[in-house]
Design goal:
With about 400 residues, the chain is mainly α. It folds into three domains: about 1-120; about 125-205; about 260-385, no CATH class. Helices cover about 70% and strands about 0% of the residues. The chain contains 24 helices and no strands. The protein has helices at about 1-15, 20-35, 40-60, 65-75, 80-90, 100-105, 110-120, 125-135, 140-145, 150-160, 165-170, 180-190, 195-200, 210-230, 235-250, 260-275, 280-285, 290-300, 305-315, 320-325, 330-340, 345, 355-365, 370-385. α20 (about 320-325) runs parallel beside α23 (about 355-365) and α20 (about 320-325) crosses α24. The longest helix has 22 residues, at about 210-230. The N and C termini lie far apart (about 80 Å).
Length: about 400
Amino acid sequence: MRDENTEVEKKLAFLDKTSRVTPVLVRLYDSQKLHGLAKENKPLARAELTSAVSELLDMDLEPRESELVADVLIALMQQAAIDLRQALAEKLSAVDNAPLRLVLQLANDEIEVAAPVLKKSPVLSDLDLIYIIKAKGAEYWQVIAARQILSDQVMNLLADTGDFGTAQALVDNAHIKLTEHTALALADLARNSVDLARPLLRRGELSEDMVKALYRSAGEQIKAFILENYTIEYPSLAQAVDEIVIDMVQEVGRAGRFTPTESMMKAAVRFREKGLLSVKLMMGTLRRGQVQSFIAQFSEFTGLPVRSVEDILMQTSGQGLAVACKASGVEKPDFVSIFLLTNSMRDQGRMVDLKDMTKAVEYYTRIREDVARDILENSSKRKNSNPD
């Protein structure tokens, strides 16, 4: 510690006494020295240090002065506690004329210190960022991936790391436009992760072939997940997932209206009056992509108003649909198919979220049929007493 202090003192002594920065540097050094010698004065020392650094950074310095400031600050930062280094990093991250050597010192520090300058500092060049990416690990990559401005070269290098956290940060970064190379690398990673595929599909940089490959891959994951966790008839499940994948590939981003027409409602009533309104008929309607007609039929089948059916199909939790199906004798495989095939109402054609589906199936399994009937009957009575 004594050698480091001596080195700083030499730098201060070398500075021209008439320089404007001399008193600030002396104050800066003294505040850091006090911080090391008197722990109880830590808040005061920190305030003094921050004030001195801010004053230095606001000065219009000569090149020689700027270099000396960087030397002194680097020397002091090597002695400073992590909280003071963090405070300096936060301050420097927004300064466009901060000494590069000092910014690099902080950027290569512990991630808690490095994060602000890695994410926001305008001083760091592409070469600086590339060096850090190659020299550091995933924590540093993920912070860099959140920068508002990323060159194609840096973006491609981040994507090539193969790190899922970095890929997620790139996908979530709304300020950048993914390059073709980056989009392809992220799409390859997303084939093994629905959580990564969903936000990636919401971006506009993917080619049609990438979108198709991702949807097909996600569809296989959903089928495997359900088969592993639930006792459900496979052919019905596989057909439901395949059909929703095809629908999404063809109509990504579609946001249609689903309210049935008057003729659809009359047709549903006729089916019921003739004794033809069955689960099999409704599933056939839904598999053909006729969501509006399905809503009309499901409304007649359950006794729920159309608006209520639309509302429960829009729920990501699937609880309302689970109650309606359980109360009406719709078996679990058909309930799962309905939940899958009506996904376009919830996510505008995006892939089903496995977490949402898990909650929906678990709720269907837990609720008793008599309880579900009571809920459905009470809901119907309330709606009928307050018609739309």
